[in-house]
Design a protein that fits this description.
single chain, alpha+beta, 7-stranded antiparallel β-sheet, 5-stranded antiparallel β-sheet, binds cytidine-5'-monophosphate, SAICAR_synth
Length: 236
């Protein structure tokens, strides 16, 4: 499989076509943005870490029965994935209140939710990814009823698998964002990434933040936090 033309450039990744009709290559960048692109920076080594962490977790989820777009890691920052049509939703799962949920409901960060909370945003930079519910999703045909039900059940199952897995590495899964896509044969698969860019990870003992909030909130030690996640998960 050889890389061909660039199909898309996002804030943290580029996607290339390949000589194989049904495959793409994702290339992870060190660029970091926050607050819908208002804050920009570079996190040295981030691309390579997010590539490794995402692939590791996706392979783990595949073994647990979740279909993903993962095919094969090509090098430090590039991976072959199945070509999908991205469903234009950010699927957010929360176990502990933080970030926008803490703000919206007036909760202090760290408040444990009695059960997981599932949220959807419509992926649209110009609109700032507005939150939507099932009714918007179906009325706007962002997904069909059947797709939405599959997405919800995968998201909650992924939360259970990941939370338990990360706990063994002394990482508390506070919340995270997923994206799903439809492959050329119509299967819904987990796509995009699962990394410190898209999850909140807190040390189970100290509560230390080991994710992109260190960049968003200028807490320092950003690179070290990403490195620590890589080490705890892959031993590197
Ligand atoms: O900002 P908020 O609290 O809504 O974020 C919830 C979770 O979703 C966090 O883990 C954050 O990293 C992730 N997220 C994301 N991309 C976005 C918005 C949120 O990865 N555009």
């Amino acid at each position: 499989v050889e890389k061909t033309e660039q199909l898309y450039e996002g804030k943290a990744k580029k996607v290339y076509g390949t000589t194989e009709e049904t495959l793409c290559i994702v290339s992870y960048k060190d660029d970091a943005t926050a607050f819908n692109g208002l804050k920009k920076g570079t996190i040295m080594g981030k691309g390579a870490i997010n590539n490794r962490v995402t692939n590791f977790l996706m392979q783990m989820l595949e073994k647990e029965g979740i279909p993903t777009h993962f095919v094969e890691e090509v090098n430090e920052r590039e991976t072959i994935v199945k070509k999908v049509r991205i469903i234009p939703l950010e699927v957010i799962v929360r176990n502990i209140a933080a970030g926008s949920l803490a703000k919206r409901l007036g909760l202090s960060e760290g408040t444990k939710m009695k059960r997981p909370v599932l949220e959807f945003s419509y992926k649209n930079d110009d609109l700032g990814d507005p939150m939507v519910n099932d009714y918007h999703i179906l009325a706007m045909e962002y997904a069909t009823e059947e797709e939405l039900s599959v997405i919800k059940s995968y998201a909650l199952k992924i939360n259970e698998i990941l939370s338990a897995y990360l706990k063994d590495a002394n990482i508390e899964l506070i919340d995270f964002k997923l994206e799903f896509g439809k492959t050329t044969d119509g299967t819904i698969v987990l796509a995009d990434e699962i990394s410190p860019d898209t999850c909140r990870f807190w040390d189970t003992v100290t509560g230390e933040k080991l994710d992109k909030d260190r960049f968003r909130r200028d807490l320092g030690g950003v690179e070290d936090a990403y490195q620590e996640i890589l080490k705890r998960l892959l031993g590197e």
